[in-house]
Amino acid sequence: MTMAVPTTLWIYLMAVYISGSNCQMVQMDATKSGYVGSQVELRCLFMNIPGVKISQVTWQKFLNGSKQNVAIVNPTMGVSVLNPFKERVTFKLQAVQEKTPSLEDTTIVFSNLQLSDEAAYICEYTTFPAGNRENMVNLTVFARPEIQMIQSAPTIVAQSSSLKVSVATCLAANGKPPGVITWETTLKGEERTEEIPHSNGTVTVRSDYFVIPSREMHKQKLTCIVTYNNDTTKDTIILNVQYNPVVKIEGFDGNWYLNRQDKLGLTCTTEANPPVTHFEWRLLNGSMPAGVEIRNNTLSFKGPVTNDLTGTYVCEATNSIGTRSGQVEVNVTEKPLPQGVSGETIGIVGGVVAAGLIAGVAVVVFLVYRRQQKTRTERDNELTDLPPAHKLVPPLRRNTDFKGHLTSDDIQVFHPDKEVEEMREVDLHPPYYDMASSFSDKLDSDPKDHDVQYAELDTSVLASSPCPRSSILSGDLVEYATIQPSL
To answer: Within its chain, how far is the Cα of 32 from the centroid?
Structure first.
């Protein structure tokens, strides 16, 4: 009896210690994830301490508030994996299944993951004397989408209307989470995308690409890009667009002249999808000339050239989509064009000549402009170099106190004929004369401020002047006077 108390006290203290350190005893990852069909490990480690005995380990699936046993390990009973996990769940370590098992590591391995495996999983240890200890891991299961790209219709026909049609469909089926679809192409089109959810949690994404079909789209690439969890998958198709024939007639060089002896002919070239199956030749407003041989898309003329070959030749080409035609106007001349000269060559030469004329006119305009600029500059320089006596003297400051009337003594008349010789020595443009010099004596003798004013006089006023007037310039006589204030 004396030994029972210490033993009971020891068990109680051990239980209290283990209860306080429960979160450290069972160690697991907080979250794990895997893809459908892949394999994933769910780690469970028991941090044992001396005196604690493991009597059983139980794995449980916890979903929507209920628990379902997955696997059980008992040192006496051995290992048991329950349905529906029996074929897909195993313990990682072989030591767990031995007669004397080691249960500190009871990690399990899920193989061939399924969407239904997504849940929380509990690893529970039954111990003595600590009781039950457990931890939990959340398992997420991803589903990679099944990517498929198909041509929406077996036949895409170019059309003249503005109606848009779907030319390709890209699917990212049964993805969890859903994939993201984008398009890569040089085509001018429109994408329309929708998401279709499923009961198992997956989503199918469908994207259709719409265009207005045209001949230019034939053999163009259209690429669907699916992005899923930072992974990118591409799928490309090449469009097969069917269209009417595009017809062109070749062979006429613009130099068919009378009695030309070499073999001549016309060829009907086409671009079509599907290929042209039938050609038909005809001559507008007439029948084919004699000696013409027709073979599918070629028209051959036998014998020398005559005026009978003149006319408009039409080639009709037909495929399963429709019929289209092309034509060429054949003209026969009396004499051949100069050797090596054709309509195309004449056009090129004409273009070069026109360009040369334009360039020549531009150069002439530029030179004339420069010449005018130079003449103007030289004329300005000549005026700048004139003697001071022939430069226009700016008016002096006006004396606002000046008041009075003009008398005959106040007017000094300038007669150009008295200064002819002096003015001829200087080329004036236009002639100037210093009219301020007449006041120089008075201004020097009297420091008072005087005004000098200029006026253009009517010559009729001075008609009675005794001094004869003459002008060295042609045209009307313009006379200037200096108006002096009374002193």
So the answer is: 44
Tell whether 349 is covered by a domain: no
Two tokens, residue 158:
């170019």
412: tokens are 């000094």
Give the span between the Cα atoms of 338 and 348, in whole angstroms: 15
Identify whether 393 is part of a domain.
no
Number of folded domains in the chain?
A: 5
Q: Do both 372 and 415 map to the same domain?
A: no
pLDDT in tens, 160-175: 888 999 999 999 999 9
Task: Report the distance separating Cα 325 and Cα 247, nearest Å.
Answer: 6
127 domain-assigned: yes
Structural domain range at position 446: 408-483
For residue 397, what are the contacts with CB-CB under 8 A and spacing of at least 6? 449, 451
Domain boundary among 90, 122, 141: 141
Degrees to nearest 5, angle at CA 371 with 365 and 375: 145
CATH number at residue 85: 2.60.40.10
Q: Which residue in 419, 445, 450, 443 sits closest to 433, CA to CA? A: 419
Amino acid at 271: E
Domain boundary among 273, 302, 333: 333
Who has greater pLDDT, 46 or 5?
46
pTM: 0.57
CA distance linking residue 402 with residue 398, whole number of Å: 9
| pLDDT confidence bin for 482, thresholds 50/70/90 | very low
User: What pLDDT is recorded for position 24?
Assistant: 52
Q: In this structure, are residues 313 and 327 in contact, taking their beta carbons and an 8 Å threshold? A: yes
Specify whether 57 is located in the same domain as 129.
yes
The reply to whether 130 and 10 lie within a common domain is yes
Please check whether residue 168 is in contact with residue 222, taking contact to mean a CB–CB distance below 8 angstroms.
Answer: yes
Q: Are 222 and 237 in contact (CB under 8 A)?
A: yes
Rg (CA), the chain: 56
Question: Residue 254 in 3-state DSSP?
Answer: coil
User: In whole angstroms, what is the distance from residue 8 CA to residue 63 CA?
Assistant: 40
Task: Output phi, psi for 80, to 5 deg.
Answer: -140, 120
18-32, 119-133, 317-331: least confident range? 18-32
pLDDT at 28 > cutoff 90: yes
Paired tokens of 159 = 């059309």
| The pair of three-digit structure tokens given for residue 255, joined into one six-digit string | 């130099």
Token pair 């313990």 in the structure block, residue:
91
Angle formed at CA 266 by CA 261 and CA 271, multiple of 5 degrees: 160
> 323: Cβ–Cβ under 8 A, 6 or more apart, which residues?
244, 245, 316, 317
